[in-house]
């Protein structure tokens, strides 16, 4: 993969940046493309800052072939190499966060997209909140995260002034494996934007565990972080070395004797934080945090969001499983294909959609998108078709074709045999869950196993039953206990407005066919009797063909039904008294993450809404299916987020209609 490396310690230096050269070499040896953009000097303890008003200027660093000590120092040049055949890093006279911005957006484009940003290795640990909140290493990773790039902040925790090259190289090898494992296992649910990784510089680090940890919440103790001095501050690199390795640094936690002064005097102040309290907080804290893990010799991994908060996905002491062998993930380089000339690239578009308001919209879209003469539109499609019919309309078997029809008309057989020349408007799907009686059973089973599910409150319970003939309706409802009880109670109520109304849906129908409202057994029986009127008495009379009974439902649909309590009144928007439903797309991944497409549509009924007892037979007032509307208009379909919904007028806890 293509990795951008930055840090807050600057270019290689035995005093302040002793690890970065070795890590980059290990990443390159693992097969990764590594681009480097570093601060031109020490920039520790600066967090995620940018220098406002400063014009940043790059210089170009050519690293040494040596990895450690004074021999690892490279050379800096004001201009990049003219030949471009040498390894060259970019140094910026800015902050670590600025290096990330410039590295992501202004250099290295010729190497392809950057897959991961690695900030570090930091010269010293970045465990606990005190260190993490001030860290330039963490700040650079956070900057990458808010730029929507995967990022890892890498820090090396040392316990001795003896920086053994063997131990450093082992820590770098360990870091490469951790980086590769985290990238491969990066969560897809946006639970982590970046990771903070702390690797202890100890013998045998490659054999120790890698643990997911929390960040220990701690605070500065024992006074301020600055020391009064009389002389000018020393070199920045030397200061960082003294802070990390001095009497108050990571090697020991002893505090020097304090000297009291009275009155005001002109002073300078040198950054000299006291780490004794930090290490004491680690000793006193229970296991499971990042400071504890490093103290015990483990590598610490903390998933974080780009808001200085570790995520709930961090589980104390759970081990990160590393692959035994380093697997190099190579991402394909996407090369933009040249545009073909329009000559010879014409195609045929077969557009035959059943809905009269959809057909002209599709034709208008084709006209607006494709130049004149590029597409040959066919709208006259034979009404009786075999399973494979598309080849009969095309100029030849290999003709380029776009077929947009209703799902039932799609010629899947032809499309499957001509994948390079034929496009259709839908994948092949299974309709089990959209069949109402199957969906009802699935919801019932789910709630029975998971009574705490939101479906228990948000989906009205359905009564599913089977009816072969209208005369057997009473027997079919024997086990529909809630429905029978409701209908019996309604019989004693003279006022229709006091009854509980139900909505009947044939399980195998679609496009709004056969949906009715009822509140009594007599009304329900009348619906089924109406459907059977005019039906042939035997198969011989009907010729064996399914026929439409005239009310939008075919005889084959008269078997599976569901009935649900009807929700009255529905949510209506200001200025429009028509009922509506929301049409949206969702994508499901794994088992089971559901992603909802934000750009939703609101589909409105054809007529103003009326109560079920006022006009139970007027389906255009309570059904929002646009396909049943005799005269749809431009206000039938609207963008949901453009609707004048009053704030807090409805809540997710309110049940919604299953229409």
From TrEMBL:
Gene3D superfamilies in UniProt: ATP-grasp fold, B domain, Survival protein SurE-like phosphatase/nucleotidase
Transmembrane regions listed in the UniProt entry: none
Record field: compositional bias (Acidic residues): 532-550
GO CC terms in record: P-body
Domain (Survival protein SurE-like phosphatase/nucleotidase): residue spans on this chain: 3-221
PROSITE patterns on file: TTL
Region Disordered: start-end pairs: 236-266, 532-553
Molecular-function annotations in GO: hydrolase activity
Pfam families per the UniProt record, alphabetical: SurE, TTL
Record-linked InterPro entries: SurE-like_Pase/nucleotidase, SurE-like_sf, TTL, TTL/TTLL_fam
N-terminal signal peptide: none
UniProt-listed PANTHER family: TUBULIN--TYROSINE LIGASE PBY1-RELATED
Protein name according to UniProt: Survival protein SurE-like phosphatase/nucleotidase domain-containing protein
Originating species: Bionectria ochroleuca
Organismal lineage: Eukaryota, Fungi, Dikarya, Ascomycota, Pezizomycotina
């Amino acid at each position: 993969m293509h990795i951008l490396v930055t840090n807050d310690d600057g270019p290689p230096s035995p005093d302040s940046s002793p690890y970065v050269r070795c890590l980059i070499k290990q990443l390159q040896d693992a097969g990764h493309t590594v681009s480097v953009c570093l601060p031109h000097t020490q920039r520790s303890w600066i967090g995620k800052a940018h220098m406002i008003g400063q014009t940043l200027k790059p210089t170009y660093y050519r690293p040494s072939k040596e990895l450690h000590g004074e021999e690892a120092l490279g050379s800096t040049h004001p201009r990049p190499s003219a030949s471009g055949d040498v390894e060259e890093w970019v140094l910026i006279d800015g902050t670590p966060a600025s290096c990330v911005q410039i590295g992501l957006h202004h250099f290295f484009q010729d190497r392809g997209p950057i897959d991961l940003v690695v900030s570090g290795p930091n010269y010293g640990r970045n465990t606990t909140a005190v260190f993490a909140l001030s860290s330039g290493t963490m700040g650079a990773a956070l900057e990458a995260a808010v730029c929507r790039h995967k990022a890892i902040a890498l820090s090396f925790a040392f316990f001795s002034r003896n920086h053994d090259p063997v131990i450093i190289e082992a820590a770098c090898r360990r870091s490469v494996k951790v980086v590769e494992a985290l990238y491969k296992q990066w969560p897809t649910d946006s639970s982590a934007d970046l990771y903070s990784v702390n690797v202890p510089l100890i013998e045998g680090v490659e054999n120790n565990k890698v643990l997911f940890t929390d960040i220990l919440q701690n605070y500065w103790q024992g006074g301020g972080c600055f020391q009064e001095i009389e002389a000018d501050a020393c070199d920045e690199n030397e200061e960082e070395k003294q802070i990390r390795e001095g009497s108050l640094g990571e090697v020991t936690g002893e505090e020097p004797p304090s000297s009291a002064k009275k009155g005001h005097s002109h002073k300078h102040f040198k950054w000299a934080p006291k780490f004794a309290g930090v290490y004491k907080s680690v000793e006193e804290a229970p296991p499971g945090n990042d400071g504890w893990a490093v103290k015990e010799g483990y590598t610490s991994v903390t998933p974080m969001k780009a808001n200085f908060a570790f995520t709930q996905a961090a589980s104390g002491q759970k081990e990160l499983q590393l692959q035994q062998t380093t697997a190099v993930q190579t991402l394909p380089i996407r090369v933009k294909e040249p545009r073909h000339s329009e000559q010879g690239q014409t195609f045929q578009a077969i557009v035959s959609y059943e809905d009269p308001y959809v057909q002209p919209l599709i034709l208008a879209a084709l006209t607006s998108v494709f130049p004149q003469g590029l597409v040959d539109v066919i709208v006259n499609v034979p009404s009786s078709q075999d399973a494979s019919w598309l080849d009969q309309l095309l100029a030849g078997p290999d003709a380029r074709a776009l077929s947009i029809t209703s799902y039932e008309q799609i010629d899947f057989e032809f499309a499957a045999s001509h994948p390079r020349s034929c496009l259709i408007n839908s994948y092949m799907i299974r309709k089990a869950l959209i069949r109402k009686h199957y969906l009802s059973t699935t919801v019932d089973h789910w709630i029975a196993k998971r009574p705490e599910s939101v479906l228990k409150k948000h989906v009205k319970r359905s009564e599913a039953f089977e009816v072969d003939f209208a005369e057997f309706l009473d027997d079919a409802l024997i086990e529909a206990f809630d429905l029978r009880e409701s209908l019996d109670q309604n019989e004693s109520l003279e006022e229709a407005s006091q009854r509980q109304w139900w909505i009947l849906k044939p399980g195998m129908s679609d496009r709004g066919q056969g949906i009715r409202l009822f509140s009594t057994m007599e009304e329900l029986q009348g619906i089924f009797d109406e459907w059977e009127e005019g039906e042939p008495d035997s198969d011989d009379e009907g010729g064996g063909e399914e026929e439409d009974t005239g009310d939008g439902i075919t005889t084959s649909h008269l078997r599976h039904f569901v009935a649900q309590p009807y929700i009255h009144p529905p949510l209506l928007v200001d200025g429009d008294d028509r009922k509506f439903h929301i049409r949206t797309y969702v994508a499901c991944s794994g088992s089971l993450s559901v992603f909802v497409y934000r750009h939703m549509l609101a589909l409105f009924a054809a007529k103003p809404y009326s109560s079920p007892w006022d006009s139970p037979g007027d389906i255009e007032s309570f059904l929002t299916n646009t396909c049943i509307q005799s005269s749809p208009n431009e206000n039938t379909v609207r963008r949901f987020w453009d609707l004048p919904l009053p704030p807090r007028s409805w809540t997710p806890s309110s049940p919604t209609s299953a229409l």
